[in-house]
Amino acid sequence: MCGVIGLSSDNVAWEAYRGLLSIQHRGQNSAGIVTLNNKFYRKQGNGLVSKVFENFELDELKGNIGIAHVRYPTSGNGPVSESQPLFINYPYGLALAHNGNLTNYKELKQFLHDKKRSLQTDSDTEVLLNLLAHQISRHDIDTALEHTMNNAEGSYSAAMLLCKNGGKMIAFRDPNGIRPLIIGKRETETGCNYIVCSESVGLDVTGYETIRDVKPGEAVSFSRDGIEFKQIRPARPAHCMFEYVYFSRPDSIIEGKSVYEVRFKLGENLEFDKDIDTVIPVPDTSRTAALGFALKYNIPYREGLIKNRYIGRTFIMPTQPYRESAVIEKLNVIKKEVSGKRIALVDDSIVRGTTSRRLVNLLRRNGAKEVHFISSCPPIKYPCFYGIDMTMKNELIASSYIEDIKNKIGADSVTYQSIEGLVKSIGLPKSHMCLACLNGDYPTGITCEKAEILGKNREKERKNWKGIRSK
Known about the structure:
About 30% of the residues lie in helices and about 25% in strands. It has a seven-stranded antiparallel β-sheet with strand order 3-2-4-1-10-9-11. The chain has a six-stranded antiparallel β-sheet with strand order 5-6-7-8-12-13, with helices on one face. A four-stranded parallel β-sheet has the order 17-20-21-22, with helices on both faces. It is globular, with a radius of gyration of 22 Å. It folds into two domains: about 5-235, Aminohydrolase, N-terminal nucleophile (Ntn) domain (Glutamine Phosphoribosylpyrophosphate, subunit 1, domain 1, 4-Layer Sandwich), CATH 3.60.20.10; about 260-430, Rossmann fold, CATH 3.40.50. It is α+β, with helices and mostly antiparallel strands. Strand 9 (about 180-190) and strand 10 (about 190-195) form a beta hairpin.
């Protein structure tokens, strides 16, 4: 999971920086901006946006078009060389920022090697960049994008800069539209400025008005001359449900649906039959669902867990030891709201179960009489290979312990959202959503054998990451 921005604007660098701050929740590993003014201007590095651009003069990033990125690695192992946007100079200057995950990047890497294209990293973004460059060297841009989409499997919402013909910014999305990408417009005295961003909050903070989402399989070109839409591949929508459950900010609009309203409905659509005294959310992503749940059942809503806002999102940390230590540092208990109470603890989901177990233990140590764990998401039973780093089935507690999860996490009971309740809450047709991590139905047709290979590949990359971080 990453965050992408593309801009055609009078003030590219500053707006890209502000936009990145608004989507920092989508990636904490690295950040970067590339602009184009006859040549590329770049600033990027590992760490949060504020750290990467600390003491940096944004005016050094020249030009009226640019792309930007925050990274959460689900391919590669996180060195600064994999910080995005990436760019190359042959056959034309080409830069790319990518959100998603290519499931056939190993095969594509071999294909590019056979075509004498040298790759420097294990990042699937570098593979996508070179695949595009290979096609652009042989075809016009629309045909090159078509060939790229025909060969790249998985998820990709991307923005790229192309030096050819005076320069343009192009945004495109895989035919399933798994990862979000939205277009905005702003009228100025000199003409129209445009933006694409992974979430609508990036438009809000930079003063852009929403036009619409980039359609699955569509490419949108932006330049000083205007905007052009081109449907490259037929759309087969399969939008990721986890964007609504967890990843996106609650003030974002995804595919025309308010994330806040979806999460409120997720709380309302939970079925629960236990006697409890208070509803407590796991901050921050669960607050809205907990509020909907509390109002439905007329139970007092309380803030019993307080988050240290200087600890990042634990789910997107690269390894389990980092996640576990961060959970301890991240949350503290308001004892008066917990002691002696029968608590409904509402979280957005249960993935590995480690965080859930630590939360239950934390409440019990502070005097909770009962802890009933409630997940606003259905059981996650299958790996995700489209940009969320839960690629190994044996990590997922619901893949094998579904009947005994309450004992595994130490709760008095566990209540899950139903798939029907999830679909109803989001409000999109079930056929237009990716529910693969819930039901194993992968929209790109991943087989069991392929899933096992992808999981093993990711396990090796995580071990490499651990080695790098320990040096």
